Amino acid sequence: MAEQEALFEYLLRLGDNALILGHRLSEWCGHAPALEEDLALSNVALDLIGQTQLWLNLAGEVEGKGRDANNLAYLRDARDFRNVLLVEQPNGDFAVTMARQFYFDAWHYLLLRELMNSTDGRVAEIAAKGLKEVTYHLERSREWVVRLGDGTEESHERMQAALDDLWMFTGELFEADEVDQEMVRRGVGPDLGALREPWLGLMRATAEEATLTLPQPGWAQRGGKRGIHSEHLGYILADLQFLQRAYPNATW
Protein backbone atom coordinates (compact mmCIF):
# COMPACT_ATOMS: atom_id res chain seq x y z
CA MET A 1 0.00 0.00 0.00
CA ALA A 2 1.39 3.41 -1.00
CA GLU A 3 2.33 5.77 1.82
CA GLN A 4 -0.26 8.42 0.94
CA GLU A 5 -2.98 5.81 0.53
CA ALA A 6 -2.19 4.38 3.97
CA LEU A 7 -2.29 7.83 5.56
CA PHE A 8 -5.60 8.58 3.85
CA GLU A 9 -7.10 5.35 5.21
CA TYR A 10 -5.76 6.08 8.68
CA LEU A 11 -7.27 9.58 8.71
CA LEU A 12 -10.60 8.20 7.52
CA ARG A 13 -10.65 5.87 10.51
CA LEU A 14 -10.04 8.71 12.92
CA GLY A 15 -12.68 10.89 11.29
CA ASP A 16 -15.27 8.17 10.84
CA ASN A 17 -15.02 7.02 14.46
CA ALA A 18 -15.77 10.55 15.63
CA LEU A 19 -18.50 11.13 13.04
CA ILE A 20 -20.50 7.99 13.69
CA LEU A 21 -20.27 8.18 17.48
CA GLY A 22 -21.12 11.88 17.33
CA HIS A 23 -24.21 11.10 15.30
CA ARG A 24 -25.22 8.33 17.70
CA LEU A 25 -25.01 10.73 20.63
CA SER A 26 -26.99 13.36 18.74
CA GLU A 27 -29.90 10.90 18.68
CA TRP A 28 -30.32 11.53 22.41
CA CYS A 29 -31.12 15.21 21.82
CA GLY A 30 -34.55 15.79 23.33
CA HIS A 31 -34.69 12.23 24.72
CA ALA A 32 -32.09 12.11 27.50
CA PRO A 33 -33.25 11.21 31.05
CA ALA A 34 -32.61 14.75 32.34
CA LEU A 35 -32.16 18.19 30.81
CA GLU A 36 -28.55 18.40 32.02
CA GLU A 37 -27.76 15.12 30.28
CA ASP A 38 -29.54 16.24 27.14
CA LEU A 39 -27.19 19.22 26.96
CA ALA A 40 -24.10 17.23 27.97
CA LEU A 41 -24.64 14.51 25.37
CA SER A 42 -25.25 17.12 22.69
CA ASN A 43 -22.04 18.92 23.63
CA VAL A 44 -19.99 15.73 23.46
CA ALA A 45 -21.55 15.02 20.07
CA LEU A 46 -20.58 18.50 18.87
CA ASP A 47 -17.01 17.98 20.08
CA LEU A 48 -16.79 14.77 18.08
CA ILE A 49 -18.29 16.33 14.96
CA GLY A 50 -15.74 19.14 15.23
CA GLN A 51 -12.95 16.57 15.38
CA THR A 52 -14.51 14.81 12.41
CA GLN A 53 -14.23 17.94 10.31
CA LEU A 54 -10.54 18.32 11.09
CA TRP A 55 -9.67 14.68 10.38
CA LEU A 56 -11.74 14.38 7.20
CA ASN A 57 -10.57 17.69 5.77
CA LEU A 58 -7.01 16.51 6.24
CA ALA A 59 -7.89 13.15 4.70
CA GLY A 60 -9.30 14.92 1.64
CA GLU A 61 -6.15 17.00 1.35
CA VAL A 62 -3.96 13.90 1.54
CA GLU A 63 -6.11 12.10 -1.04
CA GLY A 64 -5.74 15.00 -3.47
CA LYS A 65 -9.00 14.42 -5.36
CA GLY A 66 -10.79 17.58 -4.32
CA ARG A 67 -12.94 16.02 -1.61
CA ASP A 68 -13.43 17.79 1.71
CA ALA A 69 -15.05 16.76 4.99
CA ASN A 70 -18.57 17.30 3.64
CA ASN A 71 -17.94 15.12 0.60
CA LEU A 72 -16.41 12.36 2.67
CA ALA A 73 -19.15 12.45 5.30
CA TYR A 74 -22.16 12.67 3.00
CA LEU A 75 -21.18 11.06 -0.28
CA ARG A 76 -19.70 7.73 0.73
CA ASP A 77 -21.60 4.47 1.06
CA ALA A 78 -21.44 2.24 4.14
CA ARG A 79 -18.75 -0.02 2.65
CA ASP A 80 -16.45 3.02 2.33
CA PHE A 81 -16.64 3.93 6.01
CA ARG A 82 -13.76 2.88 8.26
CA ASN A 83 -15.12 3.33 11.80
CA VAL A 84 -14.84 0.56 14.36
CA LEU A 85 -18.01 -1.42 15.02
CA LEU A 86 -18.31 -0.24 18.62
CA VAL A 87 -19.32 3.31 17.72
CA GLU A 88 -22.18 2.29 15.43
CA GLN A 89 -23.94 0.12 18.00
CA PRO A 90 -27.43 1.36 19.00
CA ASN A 91 -27.83 3.70 21.96
CA GLY A 92 -30.02 1.30 23.92
CA ASP A 93 -30.77 2.63 27.38
CA PHE A 94 -28.63 5.23 29.17
CA ALA A 95 -26.39 2.52 30.65
CA VAL A 96 -25.62 1.13 27.19
CA THR A 97 -24.77 4.60 25.87
CA MET A 98 -22.45 5.30 28.81
CA ALA A 99 -20.75 1.89 28.62
CA ARG A 100 -20.13 2.36 24.88
CA GLN A 101 -18.86 5.87 25.54
CA PHE A 102 -16.54 4.77 28.33
CA TYR A 103 -15.01 1.95 26.31
CA PHE A 104 -14.37 4.32 23.41
CA ASP A 105 -13.35 7.37 25.45
CA ALA A 106 -10.64 5.46 27.32
CA TRP A 107 -9.17 4.19 24.05
CA HIS A 108 -9.63 7.54 22.32
CA TYR A 109 -7.83 9.35 25.13
CA LEU A 110 -4.85 6.98 25.02
CA LEU A 111 -4.70 7.18 21.23
CA LEU A 112 -4.79 10.97 21.02
CA ARG A 113 -2.20 11.26 23.75
CA GLU A 114 0.17 9.21 21.60
CA LEU A 115 -0.80 10.98 18.37
CA MET A 116 0.37 14.26 19.89
CA ASN A 117 3.89 12.89 19.30
CA SER A 118 3.22 12.07 15.64
CA THR A 119 5.92 12.85 13.09
CA ASP A 120 3.15 14.42 11.01
CA GLY A 121 2.72 17.89 12.47
CA ARG A 122 -0.86 18.24 11.25
CA VAL A 123 -1.88 14.98 12.93
CA ALA A 124 -0.17 16.08 16.15
CA GLU A 125 -1.99 19.43 16.14
CA ILE A 126 -5.43 17.88 15.66
CA ALA A 127 -4.70 15.30 18.35
CA ALA A 128 -3.62 17.99 20.82
CA LYS A 129 -6.84 19.93 20.26
CA GLY A 130 -8.99 16.82 20.50
CA LEU A 131 -7.29 15.55 23.64
CA LYS A 132 -8.54 18.52 25.65
CA GLU A 133 -12.12 17.60 24.78
CA VAL A 134 -11.70 13.84 25.12
CA THR A 135 -10.18 14.21 28.59
CA TYR A 136 -13.53 15.63 29.68
CA HIS A 137 -15.45 12.95 27.75
CA LEU A 138 -13.55 10.22 29.59
CA GLU A 139 -14.01 11.83 32.99
CA ARG A 140 -17.74 12.10 32.40
CA SER A 141 -18.38 8.60 31.00
CA ARG A 142 -16.25 6.99 33.72
CA GLU A 143 -18.20 8.85 36.37
CA TRP A 144 -21.48 7.54 34.96
CA VAL A 145 -20.23 3.95 34.88
CA VAL A 146 -19.35 4.25 38.57
CA ARG A 147 -22.60 6.02 39.51
CA LEU A 148 -24.79 3.47 37.77
CA GLY A 149 -22.70 0.46 38.74
CA ASP A 150 -22.63 1.40 42.42
CA GLY A 151 -26.14 2.82 42.46
CA THR A 152 -29.44 1.00 42.76
CA GLU A 153 -29.93 -2.69 42.10
CA GLU A 154 -31.53 -1.92 38.75
CA SER A 155 -28.86 0.56 37.63
CA HIS A 156 -26.17 -1.96 38.63
CA GLU A 157 -27.81 -4.71 36.61
CA ARG A 158 -28.26 -2.48 33.57
CA MET A 159 -24.65 -1.27 33.59
CA GLN A 160 -23.30 -4.78 34.06
CA ALA A 161 -25.41 -6.01 31.15
CA ALA A 162 -24.20 -3.10 28.98
CA LEU A 163 -20.53 -3.81 29.72
CA ASP A 164 -21.05 -7.49 28.96
CA ASP A 165 -22.93 -6.94 25.71
CA LEU A 166 -20.50 -4.39 24.24
CA TRP A 167 -17.27 -6.09 25.32
CA MET A 168 -16.98 -8.12 22.12
CA PHE A 169 -16.60 -4.91 20.11
CA THR A 170 -13.60 -3.64 22.09
CA GLY A 171 -11.02 -6.06 20.69
CA GLU A 172 -11.09 -4.34 17.31
CA LEU A 173 -9.74 -1.17 18.93
CA PHE A 174 -6.35 -2.81 19.45
CA GLU A 175 -5.99 -4.90 16.30
CA ALA A 176 -3.42 -3.56 13.84
CA ASP A 177 -3.50 -4.20 10.09
CA GLU A 178 -1.15 -3.08 7.32
CA VAL A 179 -2.40 0.53 7.56
CA ASP A 180 -1.71 0.73 11.28
CA GLN A 181 1.67 -0.95 10.83
CA GLU A 182 2.64 1.55 8.13
CA MET A 183 1.72 4.42 10.42
CA VAL A 184 3.88 2.95 13.19
CA ARG A 185 6.77 2.49 10.78
CA ARG A 186 6.58 6.14 9.74
CA GLY A 187 6.07 7.42 13.27
CA VAL A 188 2.67 8.86 12.40
CA GLY A 189 0.63 6.71 14.79
CA PRO A 190 1.22 4.47 17.81
CA ASP A 191 1.28 0.71 18.16
CA LEU A 192 -2.35 -0.06 18.94
CA GLY A 193 -1.40 -3.22 20.80
CA ALA A 194 0.60 -1.14 23.27
CA LEU A 195 -2.58 0.72 24.26
CA ARG A 196 -4.32 -2.43 25.46
CA GLU A 197 -2.74 -2.75 28.91
CA PRO A 198 -3.23 0.91 29.91
CA TRP A 199 -6.82 0.64 28.68
CA LEU A 200 -7.41 -2.57 30.61
CA GLY A 201 -5.90 -1.00 33.69
CA LEU A 202 -8.43 1.81 33.56
CA MET A 203 -11.23 -0.69 32.91
CA ARG A 204 -10.26 -2.80 35.93
CA ALA A 205 -9.93 0.17 38.28
CA THR A 206 -13.28 1.58 37.18
CA ALA A 207 -15.08 -1.76 37.39
CA GLU A 208 -13.78 -2.29 40.93
CA GLU A 209 -14.92 1.17 42.02
CA ALA A 210 -18.30 0.61 40.37
CA THR A 211 -18.73 -2.85 42.00
CA LEU A 212 -18.96 -4.34 38.50
CA THR A 213 -17.36 -7.41 36.98
CA LEU A 214 -15.22 -6.76 33.95
CA PRO A 215 -15.79 -9.31 31.16
CA GLN A 216 -12.93 -11.66 30.36
CA PRO A 217 -11.02 -11.20 27.08
CA GLY A 218 -12.42 -13.43 24.39
CA TRP A 219 -13.74 -13.50 20.85
CA ALA A 220 -13.85 -10.07 19.21
CA GLN A 221 -16.25 -8.80 16.58
CA ARG A 222 -14.30 -6.98 13.88
CA GLY A 223 -14.44 -5.70 10.32
CA GLY A 224 -15.37 -2.03 10.57
CA LYS A 225 -11.86 -0.79 9.78
CA ARG A 226 -12.05 -2.71 6.51
CA GLY A 227 -15.53 -1.47 5.62
CA ILE A 228 -17.43 -4.53 6.86
CA HIS A 229 -20.12 -3.15 9.13
CA SER A 230 -23.19 -4.18 11.06
CA GLU A 231 -26.64 -3.44 9.67
CA HIS A 232 -26.81 -0.44 12.00
CA LEU A 233 -24.49 1.73 9.93
CA GLY A 234 -26.82 1.72 6.94
CA TYR A 235 -29.64 3.17 9.06
CA ILE A 236 -27.29 5.78 10.51
CA LEU A 237 -26.22 6.92 7.05
CA ALA A 238 -29.81 7.00 5.78
CA ASP A 239 -30.48 9.59 8.45
CA LEU A 240 -27.12 11.38 8.36
CA GLN A 241 -26.93 11.72 4.58
CA PHE A 242 -30.60 12.25 3.71
CA LEU A 243 -30.53 15.99 3.03
CA GLN A 244 -27.44 15.85 0.82
CA ARG A 245 -28.78 12.86 -1.10
CA ALA A 246 -32.19 14.45 -1.57
CA TYR A 247 -30.87 17.90 -2.48
CA PRO A 248 -27.35 17.46 -3.92
CA ASN A 249 -24.99 20.39 -3.36
CA ALA A 250 -27.68 22.39 -1.58
CA THR A 251 -26.44 25.46 0.31
CA TRP A 252 -28.05 27.59 3.00
Q: Kindly report how far apart the N and C termini lie.
A: 39 Å
CATH class: Mainly Alpha
Beta-strand content bin: under 5%
The named CATH superfamily? Ferritin, core subunit, four-helix bundle
Overall description:
With 252 residues, this protein is an all-alpha fold. It has a single domain, classed as Ferritin, core subunit, four-helix bundle (Ferritin, Up-down Bundle), CATH 1.20.1260. The chain has ten helices and no strands. It has helices at residues 3-26, 35-63, 69-74, 94-115, 121-149, 153-166, 178-186, 196-209, 231-240, 242-246.
Would you kindly provide a brief summary of this structure?
The protein is mainly alpha-helical and 252 residues long.
Key structural traits:
Ferritin; 252 residues; mainly alpha; 0% strand
Question: Layout of helices and strands, plus pairs?
Answer:
Elements: H1 3-26, H2 35-63, H3 69-74, H4 94-115, H5 121-149, H6 153-166, H7 178-186, H8 196-209, H9 231-240, H10 242-246
